[in-house]
Each structure stands twice: as structure tokens, then as C-alpha cells.
């Protein structure tokens, strides 16, 4: 094992420091600073900052020709109030590391410590701390960054901790593992009126009332069926918070999901048709926009084989688990660049779920994740 007891103590302290100071997507300035500060004593060949916003990358270059392996973690937290008695609980009201990105970041720092002591024999290792994973914008921004050309990988790997899965058990398979998704924002515009004379206005009430169940009815099947679709209404507003005004405007937010990217256009078309029909029948104006766009994650067989070999070497039990899952992951964009794969590391069957207010990343996962990644490196690069 390349980590010492002292490493374990210091890495836990690092993770707790990140946990106390969560920053949401696009705001990870101090989190990135803490990561870069922790990397400098390890003397990587290069540290890149400001990638796609606040992203950080460290490059460990052997100087000998060989493949480039990229390992990705995430920097951002969630806009959710943490409910915890832990000494390291969030100090920022309304924000918390309730998905474990602080833990994933610590796994990469553990890997950096190992690489600083045991350099690879050939090729390069790139450790990427990606910003803005939670809103789906971070990976695209990193790939579009001019500095990405300095670290373009031949293979990319990642992991995510997974409550509900036995502690230390891994779920891994080739093919689709996370769904494509996007947020659809629908605005309906009519005309307000005095509440005593609603007939003089144009209310979107009937349209929004019919649209919500109609959109939800677009849901069909479940993964791993390739025709799986899911439409979830996440937010809706109607009119002003006043008793004297008949409403003139309404807004609906709905999240659309498909197993693979190729099915998303069809689902969007069906949802848009419902909106247009409802608006026209009610005489309303409408607008549609899309947000938080995630491509589906698809594990490449060759990258999965690397992870399977590493898991076997490290004695970590794995199977296909409940993959593919409905949740989305920004890592899916990396498959456009190189073969990539993500595995899911069990946080405990009864552990609070991701995005729950009482969730906290289990620190004992750090050594497991780092060992598996290091085994991939040693097998590929020596």
C-alpha cells in the first residue's frame, strides 16, 4: 500500500476542510485553491488552474513516450442545507458537500501523493479536478478550454461513491451506465386581471394544469431498456402571490431522461409538441429553454477491462450491480475524447443517500479508491 498512516490522517483532514467550505457549481474558487496548494509540495510536472472555470489539473510526466491516463474528480458542492452533527459539517448556510465530491477530490490527492513517491516508468498521468459537475456544464467547459490540449488523454477513468451498495463493493459494467438528461424550462404568458374579473385577462391555469400530467405521461419503461424515458416535473409557479390578481404567467420545470443520447431528441420533440398544443389552445405565448444538459455515460470495454484487472489485483469485489442507473453524470462527455469508464464504490447499504441533507462521504473509501486507480496506473504505465 502506497499510503501511510500519516497520509490517512492528513487526507482525512483535507477532506474535512473541503467539507466545511462547500462551493456550488461555478463558484469553486477556494476549493480549487486548496487543491492546488496541496499539490505543490508533491512537485508534479505541471499544475494547470482555471480550467473551464475553476478546474485544476496536475500532470505527472515520466518523460518517456507512452499513453496519457486521466483520472477525474469533481470540485463542486450542492445548494442544500446540511443537517449534521459532525464536527466538520458545512459552515456555509444552504450549501453542503452532500454528494461526496470532497471525498472524490481527496482520492485524487492520495493518488498524487503516491505518484510523487513512485513515478511512472513511461507515459503521463493527469489528475483532473473538474468544476461544475452538478449542473452539467463543467466537463464541456474543460474540454473547450485551450489548455486541455496539454493534457489530452488516451484513457479516462472516474468513480462515484454509491450509498445503497455494500461498503467497498463495486458496481461496474461496459456500455451505458448513466442516463442522458436535461432540464426543460417552459414559460407560459397570458394577461393578468383583477381577481374579481378574471374573464378580462388570459390565465395559464388550465394550460399548466393539463401540461404537468401530460409531460409526466411521457415516462416509459426503465433502464436497461434503450427506449426508457422519464419526465419529472421539478418546479411550477402560477401567477403572483396575491389574492387580488388573476394569473397571467406560469412556469414549469421538467427534467427529461433517456438511457442514451440518441433518444433525447425524440423525447424533447414530444414534450415541445405538448407545450405548443397547450399554449395555442389557450391562446398563450410560450418559451422553451434547456439547461443542465448531461450526455449519457458509456463505459468503453477496454477501459472497463483496466478497472476489472485493478479491482481483482486489489481484492475488491465487483459485479454489474444495478447498472445502468437513472442518475446522470457529467463524466459522459469524456467518451468523445477517449475510451473512458467509471465505477461505483459502495458507501454502505444503509448509508444516507446522495443529496440527502444528512449524507456524508465515508472517509474509509479514500484508500480503496486510490488503490484501484494506482493499480490501473501501474498496469498501464509501470
UniProtKB/TrEMBL annotation:
UniProt keyword annotation of Thylakoid present = no
Molecular function terms from GO: hydrolase activity; metal ion binding
Question: Which keywords does UniProt give here?
Answer: Hydrolase, Manganese, Metal-binding
Q: Which domain of life is it from?
A: Bacteria
Start and end of every Peptidase M20 dimerisation domain?
A: 182-278
Return the cofactor note field. Answer: The Mn(2+) ion enhances activity.
Q: Which cofactor does it need?
A: Mn(2+)
Q: Does the keyword Hydrolase apply?
A: yes
Residues annotated as binding Mn(2+) are 99, 101, 134, 160, 355
Q: Supply the NCBIfam families for this chain.
A: amidohydrolases (TIGR01891)
Question: Could you identify this protein by its name?
Answer: Amidohydrolase
> What organism is listed for this UniProt entry?
Rhizobium rosettiformans
Q: What lineage, starting at the top, does this entry show?
A: Bacteria, Pseudomonadati, Pseudomonadota, Alphaproteobacteria, Hyphomicrobiales
